[in-house]
């Protein structure tokens, strides 16, 4: 499958919106989880790391229209995620809902917020909550390892053998502060969707010569195999600049780029056939039914010189591989 025509767009006046993630409740209502932050916040679009909060909108169909419902994970001073919640990725496992995200707290500047990011999870019996948050991150940093400074960008799926895989982004300490690096990805496994997760020690998706080759993984399992969508930061995995690319694996540890790697180029195809090149197209999410992809969601920043962003839903079409 690959995306085809842009079917729906969600935006909010006065806010940047990002990180789409969709789940359907037992009554058939659709709940879109996303991040937002004020468009007039200091440093504009880059205020995702200092002002973001995870929110929820609802609709009667997966293509919307969506209506804002609530802030799901607000500030809670004094905790590891006290200042910022970001990167929501919601899944339903059994009768419960699991909201994976990153959070941070900081009394410092932009880089200090970024370097305090950690992966967490909140759990609820309904998408409307209440959501149980935890005092400690789900996946903390590992001193001396490739992810010794930051864990972020979580995505979780149930594996073919009934366990749970968590794919995430991490930042090491081999490069100078405050950016540190390299920025790579890893996997961890657990017997329960709320952990504890055990990390595989080696990073995945690494590319020689690239200190930050990609980000924003989305993992799912289908037909006994593991799949990941990843945003390429340049042309590290395909000739298409900053495309969404697909990886495959038999075991969740040994990954290879798909034979047709480009899942979505950095452009929107509208119903009238018009192709619109965009500045950023990131945060891939597949809405799946019976573990099969049905709709592709992503976040889009239309122009480099404006802070506005939107969430886009695209229908999928079959391809031969």
Which features characterize this protein?
single chain; 321 residues; mainly beta; Tachylectin-2, Chain A; four-stranded antiparallel beta sheet; 21 strands; globular
Question: Mind explaining what this structure looks like?
Answer:
This protein has 321 residues and is mostly beta strands. It has a single domain, classed as Glycosyl hydrolase domain, family 43 (Tachylectin-2, Chain A, 5 Propeller). It is built from 2 helices and 21 strands. The mean pLDDT is 96.
| Beta-strand content estimate | over 45%
Count of structural domains: 1
Name the average pLDDT: 96
Level-2 CATH architecture: 5 Propeller
Summarize the main sheet: 4 strands, antiparallel
Calculate the terminal CA-CA distance, rounded to whole Å: 9 Å
The neighbouring-strand order within the major sheet is: 1-21-20-19
Cα radius of gyration in angstroms: 18 Å
Please state the structural category: mainly beta
**Helix and strand sequence:** EEEHEEEEHEEEEEEEEEEEEEE
Query: CATH superfamily, called what?
Result: Glycosyl hydrolase domain, family 43
Uncertain segments: none
The top-level CATH class is Mainly Beta
Shape: globular
Q: Determine the CATH topology.
A: Tachylectin-2, Chain A
Helix content: under 10%
């Amino acid at each position: 499958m690959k995306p085809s025509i842009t079917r729906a767009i969600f935006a909010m006046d006065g806010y940047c919106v990002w990180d789409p993630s969709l789940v359907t409740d037992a009554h058939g209502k659709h709940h879109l989880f996303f991040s937002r932050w004020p468009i007039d916040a200091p440093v504009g679009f880059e205020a995702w790391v200092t002002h973001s909060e995870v929110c929820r909108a609802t609709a009667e169909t997966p293509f919307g229209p969506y209506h804002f419902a609530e802030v799901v994970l607000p500030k809670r001073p004094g905790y590891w995620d006290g200042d910022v919640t970001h990167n929501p990725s919601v899944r339903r496992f059994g009768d419960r809902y699991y909201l994976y995200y990153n959070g941070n707290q900081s009394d410092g500047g932009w880089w200090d917020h970024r370097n305090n990011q950690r992966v967490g999870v909140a759990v609820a019996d309904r998408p409307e909550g209440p959501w149980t948050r935890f005092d400690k991150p789900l996946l903390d940093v590992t001193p001396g390892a490739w992810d010794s400074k930051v864990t972020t960008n979580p995505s979780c799926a149930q594996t073919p053998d009934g366990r749970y895989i968590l794919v995430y982004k991490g930042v090491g300490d081999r490069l100078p502060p405050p950016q540190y690096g390299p920025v790579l990805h890893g996997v961890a496994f657990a017997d329960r969707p709320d952990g504890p997760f055990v990390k595989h020690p080696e990073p995945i998706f690494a590319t020689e010569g690239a200190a930050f080759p990609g980000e924003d993984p989305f993992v799912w399992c289908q037909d006994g195999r593991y799949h990941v969508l990843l945003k390429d930061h340049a042309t590290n995995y395909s000739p298409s600049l900053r495309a969404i690319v697909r990886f495959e694996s038999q075991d969740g540890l040994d990954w290879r780029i798909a034979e047709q790697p480009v899942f979505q180029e950095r452009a929107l195809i509208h119903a009238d056939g018009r192709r619109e090149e965009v500045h950023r197209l990131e945060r891939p999410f597949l809405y799946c039914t019976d573990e099969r992809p049905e709709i592709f969601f992503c976040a889009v920043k239309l122009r480099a010189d404006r802070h506005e962003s939107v969430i886009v839903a695209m229908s999928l079409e079959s391809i031969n591989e």
